[in-house]
Design goal:
Layout lengths: L1 E5 L16 E8 L3 H6 L11 E4 L2 E4 L7 E8 L3 E7 L6 E5 L2 E3 L3 E4 L5 E8 L10 E10 L6 E5 L5 E4 L2 H9 L4 E10 L5 E6 L13 E6 L2 E6 L4 E6 L12 E12 L5 E10 L4 E11 L2 E12 L3 E7 L4 E9 L13 E9 L5 E6 L2 E7 L12 E7 L3 H4 L5 E10 L8 E2 L5 E5 L13 E2 H4 L3 E2 L4 E9 L5 E6 L4 E8 L2 E2 L3 E4 L5 E6 L12 H38 L1 H6 L1
Parallel strand pairs: 27-34
Antiparallel strand pairs: 1-5, 2-5, 2-7, 3-4, 3-6, 6-10, 7-8, 9-10, 11-14, 11-16, 12-13, 12-15, 15-18, 16-17, 19-22, 19-26, 20-21, 20-23, 23-28, 24-25, 26-27, 29-34, 29-36, 30-33, 31-32, 31-35, 35-39, 36-37, 38-39
């Protein structure tokens, strides 16, 4: 049982609820003024309204006048969660069974105010054996609910996993909750890996992002408020999977939500490239069944090598029954058309999300649209990583090697940079407006179409056309980067500040061929040439003046001496 009372009512006029003996009174009291309410409204995310959520009760605060004290009778012998979102934490306080309760954990909500989860009642944790340690995964649930996590032991066996279908059904009802999962795991000679993945990396100005914490043996192992994929190792016996002196780790994630309920496989291959040959380091298939799946692999390649990761998707079809009109010609009354069912084969569209990193540089973090249809999507994708050369990767007669590495800024108002904040492209400067694809041979969303992480490195290595005088790399001056480098065939290029056709400032790195047949000259040489030209022009003018005067003088002499004229 619960009741709301206005925050402005005097305490003497509020009669407390009468709870049963098996229940205790929960009180939520607000102490926020109209000015504090106005000043605490989010600057960007106006979709998320302040609220109070308790199982069986969801209270929305649309404006200041709707903020009211809240009371409810809750079972003493059960653990209850009280969630308050969109208000400063000093704007409310809790009490349960007459005793003050500290506000629980805070999570990002609307980019300005947090959302909090507070547990009251009989909330206990499992008691483990002496040889075991308690592992706790705290997962903050939001609207989308399609995240998936699991914990693996050192042999790759699953010891704990989430139930995404149950969480998704909960999220679709519009709920927020702190999902706490416990397990008692062997303490000695143990190494565990926490894996988590999603189809989205949400900015607080769009929707409330999810959050997780991993606690093992009473110590916080990891916490993150922004991720698309993440992996965390913990335990006393964990060792690096690759030799840190001679090998580089390549980490691969793939998240797939199979709506078709068909079973299929993705094929993949990782190889090392050089000028003479390529050799496969690892390959395999990723089986996918109905529902959500999360694949993860760490592979080791020689340090300083050029690696290429190839992945292909199957082409699937399924039978569907559609209603089609019996006749469409000469129809005068469309309301009385007769339809019949017809069985057809339609393509199954796959939308996996995957990421690739090598030596902590992200080379791909995208949603992949497959198969190719009407010029969009692709049947396969190849990602180049590491230290590549033009001779080892490209056709040197017709291609150059484009190598970009950028580092994002370390701080932001939110724990990520949204994709609209990062703006760069590589392509032709001179192009027709309807040939916009020439301007975007490569662009920001080719690397990440989800979000860019703070203080992180991203890279692109691609073979590009050798022809063209006006190829260039362009990045907006407002893009949240700390630094970037562009290399052409292994040589770092210089950049310059320019303005685009709309007047916005860009940092441009010219990349195309030198189409000027004259050799390049230094500034001093050019100045010397200019001086020489001035001297030469002056000499010519002086010569013309002298010649004209001499000609005039000769004419006068000819008129005065007829004999000389006849002799001539």
């Amino acid at each position: 049982m619960s009741v709301q009372k206005t925050a402005e009512d005097p305490a003497t006029e509020i009669a407390l609820l009468t709870c049963k003996e098996t229940e205790a009174l929960l009180e939520v009291k607000y102490n926020i003024t109209k000015d504090e309410w106005d000043s605490s409204r989010p600057k960007y995310n106006i979709r998320e309204e302040p609220f109070l959520y308790l199982k069986g009760s969801n209270v929305k605060y649309e404006n200041f006048t709707s903020v009211r004290n809240y009371e409810a009778c809750l079972p003493r012998d059960e653990c209850s969660e009280v969630v308050v979102g969109g208000l400063p934490t000093d704007a409310y306080e809790f009490s349960f069974d007459g005793k003050a309760v500290d506000i629980g954990q805070e999570f990002i909500f609307d980019g300005t105010n947090p959302v909090t989860s507070t547990k009251v009642g009989a909330c206990t944790k499992p008691i483990c054996k002496v040889t075991e340690a308690l592992m706790e995964i705290q997962y903050w649930e939001t609207y989308f609910g399609n995240e998936y996590f699991r914990v693996e032991d050192k042999d790759g066996g699953t010891v704990l996993f989430s139930d995404p279908e149950e969480r998704e059904a909960y999220s679709l009802r519009g709920g927020y909750t702190l999902n706490q999962t416990y397990a008692c795991l062997p303490r000695d000679d143990a190494c565990y890996t926490f894996l988590i993945g999603s189809a989205y990396q949400i900015s607080p100005i769009v929707r409330t992002p999810a959050s997780y914490s991993v606690i093992f043996d009473g110590k916080l192992v990891s916490r993150s408020d922004s991720w698309l994929f993440d992996s965390v190792q913990f335990g006393g016996s964990c060792k690096p999977q690759c030799d840190q002196d001679t090998e580089s780790p390549v980490e691969f994630f793939l998240y797939d939500h199979n709506w078709s309920n068909l079973e299929y496989e993705y094929e993949w291959d990782l190889n090392v490239r050089n000028s003479d040959s390529s050799s496969t380091v690892a390959s395999g298939v990723l089986p996918t069944g109905p529902g959500i799946s999360l694949a993860h692999k760490i592979m080791c390649v020689p340090k300083g090598s050029c690696s290429s990761f190839y992945i292909s998707a199957p082409k699937l079809t399924r039978e569907v029954v559609v209603s089609v009109p019996v006749e469409t010609e000469n129809v005068t009354d469309w309301n009385n058309i007769t339809y019949v069912n017809e069985t057809r084969n339609e393509s199954v569209l796959l939308r996996p999300v995957y990421a690739l990193t090598m030596d902590n540089v992200t080379y791909r973090k995208v949603q992949w649209y497959s198969p190719e249809e009407y010029g969009h999507g692709s049947d396969n994708q190849t990602t180049n990583m590491g230290s590549c050369t033009v001779g080892g990767l490209c056709d040197v007669e017709t291609q150059d090697l484009f190598d970009l590495e950028l580092r994002t800024a370390a701080t932001n108002e939110w724990p990520l940079f949204d994709i609209w904040q990062m703006r760069w492209n590589f392509g032709y400067t001179e192009h027709e407006r309807d040939d916009w694809e020439l301007q975007y041979l490569l662009r920001d969303t080719d690397v990440s179409d989800r979000a860019y992480d703070l203080d992180s490195s991203y890279g692109v290595i691609e073979c590009v056309p050798k022809d063209g005088c006006d190829l260039s790399f362009n990045i907006s001056s407002t893009s949240p980067i700390d630094s970037y480098t562009v290399k052409k065939n292994g040589i770092q290029l210089e950049n310059e500040q320019v303005a685009d056709e709309y007047g916005s400032e860009l940092s441009m790195t010219p990349f195309g061929q030198d189409c000027n047949p004259s050799p390049s000259l230094s500034g001093g040489a050019i100045a010397g040439i200019v001086v020489a030209c001035v001297v030469a022009v002056g000499a010519i003018i002086f010569g013309l003046v002298w010649y004209k005067r001499r000609q005039n003088q000769s004419s006068k002499e000819g008129e005065e001496d007829p004999l000389r004229e006849s002799l001539l």
